[in-house]
Amino acid sequence: MFSFDLLLDAVVIGVLLGCFYGAVSLGLSVSFGLLDVPHVAHPAFLVLASYAVYFLNEHYAVDPLVAGLLITPVFFLLGLVAYRLYYETFEKRGSDAAVRGIAFFFGVAFIIEVLIILQFGVDQRSVTADYIGRAWRLGDIRIPYRLLVAFAVATALTVLLTLYLSRTFMGRAIRAVAQDQEALRLMGANPIKIKQWAFGIATAVLGIAGALLIIVAPVDPTLDRAYIGRTFCVVVMAGLGSMGGTLVAAIILGVAETIVLTMFGASWAPAISFAMLLGVLAVRPQGLFGRRS
């Protein structure tokens, strides 16, 4: 029987799980929300980051969070290259770039998945750290430390990205390029270079997010498929480009998933993100917070 205690437990775990979803969606909030790049390979880059963290942890005993920080510059450069390829191949050719770009990023995601399988096989991989496998008890509620880590890191990432986009010249330029590229060009800025820089930041964030992904649960090469619906649901529900909205929308999704998991079982939980995405598109297409200016 579904009791109040079970509901409270589901809500608490759902909030923490939602913060994790927020962390893995922040990069997409920049690339898709602000830049209008159909980055369906976002979850594949996320899983790739997890395997990079696994490699450093397994072979060099590097703490997963430290490993995530170490690979962040590499993923920033990877993002610069990925956007440049997308721009030269599709974006500068015309208005149908978004449609063609979806095929491009699906291809990138497939290549990443194949490369991971060739290097690591199809088995699940996990990392070790002092805080993995331990939990903090709050009354009758058992809260895994790995979710508390995800909560803290997601909050920090959201604050840092919000400050960067609102307080720095490049951050304001990134927001401006999402609204009027011609006006930005008249001011002497290069919109393409700004978008490339922003896409690099969106990919760099995945270094930390990938560390959280493998801290929360073991990963396998096909895990990206489970996060396509979740990440796009969070970004669209938040309102394209809203960093704070991304975290709030992710918490809503996390709580909804855990309640459904508790009441109806694990088989129903993955469908929640798609149901919520369709509901938001039908009722409030601009998202809960609208597109940030």
UniProtKB/TrEMBL annotation:
Q: Name one GO biological process term.
A: amino acid transport
Protein localization: Cell membrane
Coiled-coil residue windows = none
Predominant localisation class: membrane
Record's bilayer topology term: Multi-pass membrane protein
Where is the chain membrane-spanning? 7-28, 40-57, 64-86, 98-122, 143-165, 197-219, 231-253, 259-283
The molecular function GO annotations come to:
transmembrane transporter activity
Keyword field: Amino-acid transport, Cell membrane, Membrane, Transmembrane, Transmembrane helix, Transport
GO CC list: plasma membrane
Q: Does the keyword Membrane apply?
A: yes
What the record says about family reads: Belongs to the binding-protein-dependent transport system permease family. LivHM subfamily.
Q: What is this protein called?
A: Branched-chain amino acid transport system permease protein
Organism of origin: Bradyrhizobium huanghuaihaiense
